[in-house]
UniProtKB/TrEMBL annotation:
<feature type="region of interest" description="Disordered">
    <location>
        <begin position="24"/>
        <end position="62"/>
    </location>
</feature>
<feature type="compositionally biased region" description="Low complexity">
    <location>
        <begin position="24"/>
        <end position="46"/>
    </location>
</feature>
<protein>
    <submittedName>
        <fullName>Glucose/arabinose dehydrogenase</fullName>
    </submittedName>
</protein>
<feature type="signal peptide">
    <location>
        <begin position="1"/>
        <end position="21"/>
    </location>
</feature>
<dbReference type="InterPro" id="IPR011690">
    <property type="entry name" value="P_starv_induced_PsiF"/>
</dbReference>
<keyword id="KW-0732">Signal</keyword>
<dbReference type="Pfam" id="PF07769">
    <property type="entry name" value="PsiF_repeat"/>
</dbReference>
Length: 116
């Protein structure tokens, strides 16, 4: 029994030694793929663009005032065309107009930027 255990231990050591030798003989592959020295500039994501716009709009605000402004600015949902239609149609002025006057009013209302 002792001989069998000794032979198994010796075989295990030899097989590990051979496997280790094969690893050293193989050329080492780089851990990280090669990347170009200057990666191409990526276009900013929607969130990054929103952050830049909010930072610009924040201007000279400091401390809690700036924090509150940035929170509301970044969490604001963009106004959809459907929302614009609802607000323009709900305007009492639009209800009083007819024909070409209404058409002109709606065109102006829908093309106007929403109040910030």
């Amino acid at each position: 029994m002792k001989k069998l255990l000794s032979l198994m231990a010796m075989a295990a050591c030899l097989s590990l030694g051979v496997a280790h030798a094969q690893d050293k003989a193989a050329p080492a592959a780089p851990a990280m793929p090669a990347t170009p020295a200057a990666p191409a500039a990526k276009a900013p994501t929607a969130q990054q663009s929103k952050m830049a716009t909010c930072n610009k709009d924040a201007g000279d605000k400091k401390g809690d005032e700036r924090k509150a402004f940035m929170k509301t600015c970044l969490s604001a949902k963009p106004v959809t065309q459907q929302d614009k239609m609802k607000s323009c149609n709900a305007d009492p002025k639009a209800k009083a107009l007819k024909g070409d006057e209404r058409k002109a009013f709606m065109k102006e209302c829908l093309s106007a930027k929403p109040a910030a």
